[in-house]
């Protein structure tokens, strides 16, 4: 009785794979020295395929379901092993289970920048990354080309191969798409589908794999190109630079007028602002017409005197020449302090900013003592 139990334990009655992993593509049933019993049950779960291999030859393939292993269910294996009239004894064969479900959390990215030519920025370098889904579609091809005799084949084992293929396909895609860099973000969906098709052409017949989904998450530009884009966007938002400067100067004039001692500079700034407004075609606000904003052309104003050219000392060097509004900005930014040395045309020597009448009003002054 003990001998019969031992023999019974050495025979395999059920062949199955309970897959609790997320990245396993191929798993070999651990038969070792055990023999598969005639009439044993083969259980293939949804999202799986089972392949029988005998002495390096691929025999029968089973789809999901419960199968009884007999001569009728193993026609190719029966032919290979010479079971012309059926068999009723245990047999040895390798059983590989292939996962046919999607593996959805695969990552890809360009290991090196992709060099492209853009109509606006010339030759630039691009980087890209995204995700894709992977699925086995041809179990025989996958077993022959990639797995071989590996008993446990993970998706990570072909990650580098797939990344290289995706990077190569991405380089070909952006080179042939001829899409301007500023329009790439609006074409991610279309580019993702084109990239998926290009990769499928390289992996379906050769490795028995499919790419059900592929997403381009981001295409990044070099820092200098991004800076140029930001500059261009700012210029487009500003529009007419002369009108913008006149508007800034108009906003600064009330502040200058409220500061005592800054009258000279305010007057000079007003002259500059009016000159710029006239040159830029701003509707006249002085004289003529029926209202303060009348569009009736006003008589030409006398030409404004040239703006004063200021200089200030910073880290032992002279910074300038600067116009009056720029000096206001320097004071606001803290680059010009009361003790900062300044000079302009007509001054005999450099003087602290707080001692120059045109600039003294820009610095806060303590009020005098209250009388009595």
Descriptive terms for the model:
disordered N terminus, 5-stranded antiparallel sheet, Dna Ligase, domain 1, alpha+beta, 17 strands, 372 residues, 3 domains, Tetrahydropterin Synthase, Chain A
What do you see in this structure?
This protein is of the alpha+beta class and 372 residues long. It folds into three domains: 2-99, no CATH class; 103-227, Band 7 domain (Tetrahydropterin Synthase, Chain A, 2-Layer Sandwich), CATH 3.30.479; 241-282 and 306-360, Dna Ligase, domain 1, CATH 3.30.1490. The chain contains ten helices and 17 strands. Strands 5-4-7-2-11 form a five-stranded antiparallel β-sheet, with helices on both faces. The termini are far apart.
From the alpha carbons, calculate the radius of gyration and give it in angstroms: 41 Å
The amount of beta strand, in percent, is 25-35%
* Through-space gap between termini: 125 Å
Report the uncertain regions: 1-9, 260-295
What is the CATH topology classification name of the largest domain? Tetrahydropterin Synthase, Chain A
Which range best describes the helical content: under 10%, 10-25%, 25-40%, 40-55%, 55-70% or over 70%?
25-40%
Gross geometry: rod-shaped
Indicate the multimeric state.
Answer: single chain
Would you count the extended β strands for me? Answer: 17
């Amino acid at each position: 009785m003990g001998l019969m139990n031992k023999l019974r334990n050495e025979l395999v009655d059920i062949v199955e794979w309970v897959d609790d992993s997320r990245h396993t593509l191929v798993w070999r049933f651990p038969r070792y020295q055990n023999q598969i019993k005639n009439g044993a049950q083969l259980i293939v779960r949804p999202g799986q395929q089972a392949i029988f291999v005998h002495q390096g030859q691929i025999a029968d393939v089973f789809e999901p379901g419960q199968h009884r292993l007999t001569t009728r269910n193993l026609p190719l294996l029966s032919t290979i092993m010479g079971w012309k009239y059926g068999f009723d004894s245990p047999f040895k064969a390798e059983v590989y289970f292939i996962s046919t479900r999607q593996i959805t959390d695969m990552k890809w990215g360009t290991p090196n920048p992709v060099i492209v030519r853009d109509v606006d920025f010339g030759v630039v370098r691009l980087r890209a990354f995204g995700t894709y889904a992977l699925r086995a579609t041809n179990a025989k091809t996958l077993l022959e080309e990639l797995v071989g005799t590996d008993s446990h084949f993970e998706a990570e084992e072909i990650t580098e191969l797939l990344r290289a293929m995706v990077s190569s396909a991405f380089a070909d895609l952006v080179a042939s798409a001829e899409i301007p860099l500023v329009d790439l973000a609006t074409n991610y969906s279309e580019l993702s589908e084109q990239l998926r098709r290009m990769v499928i052409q390289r992996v379906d017949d050769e490795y028995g794999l499919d790419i059900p989904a592929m997403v381009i998450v981001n295409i990044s530009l070099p820092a200098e190109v991004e800076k140029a884009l930001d500059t261009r966007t700012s210029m487009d938002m500003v529009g007419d630079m002369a009108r913008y400067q006149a508007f800034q100067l108009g906003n600064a004039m009330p502040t200058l007028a409220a500061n005592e001692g800054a009258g000279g500079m305010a007057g000079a700034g007003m002259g500059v602002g009016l000159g710029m407004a006239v040159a830029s075609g701003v509707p006249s606000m002085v004289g003529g017409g029926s209202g303060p904003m009348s569009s009736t052309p006003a008589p030409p104003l006398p030409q404004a005197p040239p703006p004063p050219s200021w200089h200030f000392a910073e880290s032992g060097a002279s910074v300038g020449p600067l116009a009056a509004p720029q000096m206001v900005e320097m004071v606001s930014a803290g680059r010009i302090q009361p003790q900062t040395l300044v000079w302009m045309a007509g001054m005999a020597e450099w003087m602290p900013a707080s001692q120059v009448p045109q600039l003294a009003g820009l610095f806060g002054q303590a009020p005098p003592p209250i009388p009595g």
